[in-house]
From TrEMBL:
Pfam families: AMP-binding (PF00501). The keyword Ligase applies. PANTHER family: ACYL-COA SYNTHETASE, ACYL-COA SYNTHETASE FAMILY MEMBER 3. One of its GO terms (molecular function) is ligase activity. This is Acyl--CoA ligase. Keywords: Ligase. Belongs to the ATP-dependent AMP-binding enzyme family. Residues 38-400 form the AMP-dependent synthetase/ligase domain. It comes from Streptomyces javensis. The lineage of its organism: Bacteria, Bacillati, Actinomycetota, Actinomycetes, Kitasatosporales. It comes from the Bacteria.
């Protein structure tokens, strides 16, 4: 086995290194890769490295060279990171963009990227064409991946059109040069494009935690490790690096969160570790109720990107038949990796336990420094007093692509303004309260939503919107799209006054690529207003 110091810190080296080390892991997909539709759904590590090599060849054939930018805008799948690795081997800068809802936002992001080559999924490309948005930028080559569609633009190339050239030279960028760009969730508007280097990602400790041998927390050789996240985000990079280093038996990819697809895939490959975004786990609660056997072998559940609710944790830990299953959660940002993290057990989230939300809302900063400051004065806040969370970490991004001024506005010397509200909770812990833009004076919407979810068992989503001049407005997704008035009255007992609930089907809730609810868009959709208590100046 290679020495620790030889572990790759450039994504372009990652899969080839794992193949050279003889990693025994086999990856199983819920559907074929968009960039390799005829290669099946089973890939060992050498096959993954070969797919990266092949992609580097056809990207080079499309005109991508050292110093150029590659934009990747496609359907959610793990091959985002394979394309990023291929571009990095050429010394190009890959920019990964998930298939966000707004075609206008995608066009804005492409203008900021100014790519030499655009790899776009055919579904997204058809949406752009239907919206009348042209993708004929001068000097840009457009390569479509995915299923054929008749309505594709005339300038569209397919992979076979740019394949067959000479093997391109491998030329990595420097450790502190831009290596990879991902975008933020975009809950409040057009997502920001976050620029990272090798030094701020795979070389930084927060990205390497899962490579270490931590009892109960990291992968073992016999494990089956499944992931159902947004693969266009940095979490895919850290998960890939840690998982390939630990070498579990299987990696299972859930590219689409639909209940049927997830049930079919997990039945074929019962996981011992399962990761998804918090809102996806909420959606999957129906499976935990109706198909608990799918989660019987899971000893470690992982949720990242956002806060998670105790009811969700309780249901999945209850479905596991392992003696001591754990729920590991983390909250972070694309710009800085983690802000706070924690671990929950069954006893910590049992029904009726006082302040059970602390198990999923109060955590320790994961190898970063965090302070709580007054939003107006910048002075540190005492324990129990909410304020803005400021983070100091070596994994902080370099800038926002095309928005340097916006990046500088959140940069406070060695500290980064997260735009999140929290408070000191003692023993070095941080309690998360809200995003500043979504704040409701005198309460935490996270805790209020957790309480309502506990009391409304058929609810798959609860969002509470703060609206100046009136009581908070609850928005509910119910499994059967119905809510009995008496059921609602019981759920509200002892809680702050709220307006009448609004029902929205889960599929119609405006969401980001990480399945977070776009509260601003939801507020406009339901109320026709953008008024909030927060300033939103740090979003």
């Amino acid at each position: 086995m290679a020495a620790r110091s030889q572990r790759p810190v450039n994504v372009g080296r990652l899969f080839h290194w794992a193949a050279e080390q003889g990693r025994p892991t086999v990856m199983h997909l819920d559907r074929p890769f968009d960039i390799a539709p005829d290669s099946g759904t089973r890939f060992d590590v050498p096959a993954l490295a070969a797919t990266v090599e092949d992609a580097a060849g056809w990207l080079h054939g499309a005109g991508l060279r050292h110093g150029d930018r590659l934009a990747i805008v496609k359907e959610n799948h793990y091959d985002f990171i394979l394309l990023a690795a291929a571009a990095a081997r050429l010394g190009a800068l890959p920019v990964m963009v998930a298939p966000i809802r707004s075609e206008a936002h995608i066009r804005t992001l492409l203008t900021r990227i100014s790519p030499k080559v655009l790899v776009m999924g055919t579904t997204v490309l058809a949406r752009m064409t239907a919206a009348g948005i042209a993708l004929d930028d001068p000097g840009m080559t457009l390569v479509a991946v995915g299923e054929d569609r008749p309505e594709l633009p005339g300038n569209t190339l397919r992979i076979d059109d740019v394949r067959g050239g000479a093997r391109p030279p491998v030329r990595f960028r420097g450790r502190h040069e831009p290596m990879l760009v991902t975008h933020t969730s975009g809950t409040t508007g057009v997502p920001k494009l976050v620029v990272h280097s090798s030094a701020t990602t795979l070389a930084a400790v927060p990205f390497r935690i899962e490579s270490y041998r931590l009892p109960l927390m990291t992968s073992r050789p016999q494990d089956v490790v499944a992931s159902g996240i947004s693969f266009a985000h940095n979490r895919n990079l850290s998960w890939t690096g840690g998982t390939l280093f630990r070498g579990p038996r299987k990696m299972v990819i859930l590219s689409e969160p639909g209940l049927g697809n997830v049930a079919r895939t997990l039945a074929a490959h019962p996981p011992t570790s399962l990761e998804a975004c918090p809102n996806v786990f909420q959606y999957w609660e129906e499976l935990a109720d109706t198909r608990p056997e799918l989660f019987a072998n899971v000893r470690r559940f992982i949720s990242t990107f956002d806060a998670v609710h105790p009811r969700t944790v309780r249901k999945f830990l209850g479905a596991s038949r392992v003696r001591l299953p754990l729920w590991a959660w983390g909250v972070g940002q694309s710009e800085i990796a983690g802000i706070a993290a924690g671990v929950a057990t069954r006893s910590m989230v049992r029904p009726g336990k006082p302040r059970a939300h602390d198990a999923t809302n109060v955590g320790f900063p994961p190898l970063v420094r965090v302070k709580v400051v007054d939003p107006e004065t910048g002075r540190k806040r005492p324990r129990g007093k909410p304020g803005l969370l400021m983070v100091r970490t070596k994994s902080r991004c370099l800038t926002y692509l095309g928005e340097d001024d916006r990046h500088r506005a959140k940069d406070r010397g060695r500290w980064w303004n997260t735009g999140d509200l929290g408070e000191y909770a003692g023993y070095g812990r941080i309690r998360l309260i809200d995003r500043e833009v979504d704040m409701i004076p005198g309460m935490s919407s996270i805790e209020l939503e957790s309480t309502l979810l506990d009391r409304l068992n058929r609810a798959s989503e609860v969002i509470v919107l703060g609206v100046p001049g009136q009581p908070p407005i609850p928005v509910l997704c119910m499994r059967d799209d119905a809510l009995d008035p008496q059921e609602w009255d019981r759920a509200c007992r002892g809680l702050p006054e709220m307006d009448k609930p609004r029902l929205v089907p889960w599929d119609e809730m405006p969401r980001t690529a990480t399945w977070k609810v776009r509260r601003g868009e939801l507020r406009e959709q339901l109320l026709g207003s953008s008024d909030t208590y927060g300033t939103g100046q740090w979003t």
